[in-house]
Amino acid sequence: MQNDNALALPMATSSNDPGDFAAPAPLGGMGGMGDMDFGGDFGGSDFGGGGALDMPALAPAAPGPSKSRLSGKAKAAIVVRLLLNEGEDIPLESLPDDLQIELTQQMGRMGLVDRDTLNEVANEFAEMLDNVGLHFPNGLAGALSAMEGKISRYTHSRLRKEAGVRQFGDPWERLRALEPEELAELAQAESTEVAAVLLSKLDTAKAAQMLIHLPGPVARRITYAVSQTGAVTPDTVDRIGLSLAAQIEARPEVAFDETPGQRMGAILTQAAAAKRDEVLTALDEEDEEFAGDVRKSIFTYALIAQRVSPVDVPKIARLVAQQDLVTSIAFATDEEDVESSEFMLANMSSRMATNIREEVAERGKVKRSVGENAMSTIVNVLREMVSNGEIELRAVDEEEED
């Protein structure tokens, strides 16, 4: 008969001591404890001593094993089993695979733990948590992940290569973070079946955006192949994710985040209209395709009516000085500029629109340099709002379809 004051773990099959955990393991879902690491020596406590616990079911009167007999792995197994028994959600899948294996094997070697030993281990672990003041990432790999975006890309890449550290974690999280254009490019380079798995692992919004960037026939083949993924095993999905993530890792580092067309378009957006037209005419003669990419990336005052949603106009009007709006509208003479002016006036408050119209009527003729500066100010505010995620521009292709 088993002791009622005991914690049951899987029965022992071996008495070999596997030793302490070699690296800390992230632990979460512990109420107020937050995310915490525990492992080999439990942060300097005596969670690193002794051999593994390997004992049969205890008789009711049998004394419990001494805490000092337990290895760090055994204590970790006790803590994990205790938390699981309490219904805590512990993200053990975030551990490196080798630690998941070691923890599972350790639990498989253990039998029963009496109540006194359980209390000693739990109290020691709780005391260790209370004494923790600062927690650092797990090794160089964890440090590089924590510092990503904080140190230069060159330094980050150099440290990772020199140390032979591979990007770790869930490969699908890495893939979901890619832009739809990159996902579409990745899907076209793979078989239809692999692309179907990739599409199925994305959230619905990202999957829809990926399909938009695929040629029609390719998109149709991939969407049909999704119907054939019912029998795909989790192992297959994992291998596909690792393979695709490895391709992303193997891409060479590039100096610029934007494409050449985007960089040139941003420059010409700030240029005077005459110079912009002159450069675009020259690009048309030299490389028509590149000129087309540049035009797609240029954003001018004339494009406001085509690219901005009516509901976003009041947001822009709140951030732009009314004097700049008055100057731009008074300066607008080209058909597309006038269309943008009327578009903004029609979608802002009627009181503000009336005031602006009255000031425009009194303003008279505006010098080119003054008018272009005012239009550039409005465009710069708009682009900053797009960069901050406050508004979203309508796509050029969407406008053409409309």
Strand order of the largest sheet: 1-4
Compute the CA-based radius of gyration: 31 Å
Number of domains: 4
SSE order: EEEHHEHHHHHHHHHHHHHHHHHHH
How far the N terminus sits from the C terminus, by CA atoms, comes to: 77 Å
Number of strands: 4
What overall form do the CA principal axes indicate?
Answer: elongated
Structural class: mainly alpha
Q: How many DSSP H or I helices?
A: 21
What number is the mean pLDDT?
79
Q: Spans of 5+ residues with little confidence (pLDDT < 50)?
A: 1-6, 10-67, 398-402
Share of helical residues: 55-70%
Q: β content, as a range?
A: under 5%
The main β sheet shows up as: 2 strands, antiparallel
Question: In a few lines, what is going on in this structure?
Answer:
With 402 residues, this protein is an all-alpha fold. The chain is 58% helix and 3% strand.
Which key phrases capture this entry?
402 residues; two-stranded antiparallel ribbon; 4 domains; disordered C terminus; mainly alpha; single chain; 21 helices; two-stranded antiparallel sheet; elongated; Annexin V, domain 1; disordered N terminus
Strand-helix topology:
Elements: E1 6-8, E2 25-27, E3 36-38, H1 72-85, H2 97-109, E4 112-114, H3 115-131, H4 139-147, H5 153-163, H6 171-176, H7 180-188, H8 192-201, H9 204-212, H10 216-226, H11 234-249, H12 260-270, H13 273-286, H14 288-297, H15 304-307, H16 313-319, H17 322-331, H18 335-347, H19 350-363, H20 368-387, H21 396-401
Please give a structural write-up:
The chain has 21 helices and four strands. With 402 residues, it is mainly α. It folds into four domains: 6-131, no CATH class; 139-165, no CATH class; 169-249, Annexin V, domain 1, CATH 1.10.220.30; 299-401, Flagellar motor switch protein FliG, alpha-alpha superhelical domain (Annexin V, domain 1), CATH 1.10.220.30. The strands form two sheets. A two-stranded antiparallel sheet has the order 1-4. A two-stranded antiparallel sheet has the order 2-3. A hairpin with an 8-residue loop joins β2 and β3.
